[in-house]
Amino acid sequence: MKLTKQEKSWVFQDWGNSVYSIMITTAILPIYFKGVASNAGIADHVSTAYWGYANSLGTLFISLLAPILGTIADYQFFKKRFFSLFTWLGIAFTVAFVFVPSDQWMLLLIFYMLSLIGFSGANIFYDSFLVDITSNDRMDKVSSYGYAFGYLGSCIPFIAFIVFQATGILPISQTMLLNGAFVMTAVWWAVFTIPLWRNVHQMYFIPHDKKPVRSSFVRLGNTLKNIKQYRNIVLFLVAYFFYIDGVDTIFRMASSYGIDLGISDTTLIIVLLVTQIIAFPCTIIYGQLAKRFGGKPLILTAIFIYILICIYAIFMKTATDFWILAMLVGTSQGGIQALSRSYFGKIIPKERSNEFYGFYNIFGKFSAIMGPALMGVIAQVTGHTQYGVASLVVLFAIGGVLLLLVKAE
């Protein structure tokens, strides 16, 4: 499928910002944090819990703001302004990791939470731009292309880091190499956001209001007051809340989980890279199949695969087991996220896309608070991280059952 200029520019943003997900959320920073925490005398399962708590607190703030920010952004010219504000916040605090002393693990967590607020906040408005740049019949494919090329694009800086790490070709210390990775992440993110800033514009909007903030609260109140009119949307959001909880938790806690199982840093990084590469074609395949079978059956397929992942995690003991689990995640992680985003875009009023994507993100973000916290508590209480992963099967099951009740787009 040939993409338009606007669609390509939107996809390039995923190509750019996805490097944050792999370098900061999943691979480099978690491993670095585990090392800093270990040097401070903190046990592995306890530092895993702290990482989970940081993810939960970092998303809480943006979760509370998401609906009202989204409602304000439905007014003309506001969407891109909010997108830019949060994008620069995320980029700035990604660079700020460079200035954190190596023994200040708590400050490192605080800066991570602030960068996560920027990244998550920008994605609210990025997601809602989907309705502005394409039509309903192309939405599944375009959304899938976004996630797929996001995985591929994020691999390039990641591979560069792995090469420098493995070969030692650069005459610099490990600390300088890590700092270079943080700066490279921020620069990559900024550069590939430029096409969206230049070519993507808010096509669906509410005319400008003299008191946009006050009016936004009124509109938001009216939406909540008349929530029965949006039964199908609400039902989807509740289903999404449960199943995306498991998806986000597995993604964010993967590195900490692997370390707790005794997986070496080098092996862990290679596994995560291969997972990204596998996710690229698999996400596009999900988009192609959705064209034929519809988004809902494909989302349910991905949920079933994640249930198998949670069950398999209980029996994991070796690096081979971790490889198998990671490959399974790679087959469906992008597909379930891409098709959820496009499915939602088809069932909401387009001129109020930011308001409804605000709700979409608050459901996703609140699930991201519950999941890592739940996994962290269980890991800390039992001393076994895999029990926390296994508990997520309940969330996938609930999400799948509720999704069955949602009417077709």
TrEMBL record:
Source superkingdom: Bacteria
Molecular function as annotated in GO: transmembrane transporter activity
Where in the cell?
A: Cell membrane
**Topology of this chain in the membrane:** Multi-pass membrane protein
CDD domains this protein is in? MFS_YxiO_like
Q: Which Pfam families match?
A: ATG22
**Any idea which UniProt keywords this protein has?**
Membrane, Transmembrane, Transmembrane helix, Transport
Protein name from the UniProt record: UMF1 family MFS transporter
Task: Give the UniProt entry's GO cellular component terms.
Answer: plasma membrane
Where are the membrane-spanning stretches? 12-33, 53-75, 82-100, 106-126, 147-170, 176-197, 233-254, 266-286, 298-316, 322-344, 356-381, 387-406
Span of domain Major facilitator superfamily (MFS) profile = 232-409
